[in-house]
Amino acid sequence: MASTALLVALSMVAATSTVQQTSDQRPATAPPGTADTLYCMRIELIIGSRIQQVRCWTRAEWAVQEVDVDHDWPEDGVRVIG
What's the confidence (pLDDT) of residue 51? Predict the structure, then answer.
């Protein structure tokens, strides 16, 4: 029984250190791309909802929404397509 608890505890420590390492390696700006590259970023939650929303748009489409992809990428960036 003690070995099971130890295994669970070590698994949690390993998972936590992996998450911290990934977040520390985030770039300061969005990765470069073409005009067709989609930048997927988290958007503000809709009032009354707890579901995180992600939108994938080109830099031009984000600019129409008054979002600076390079400025907001470190905090809200999720992935790049294309």
Answer: 83
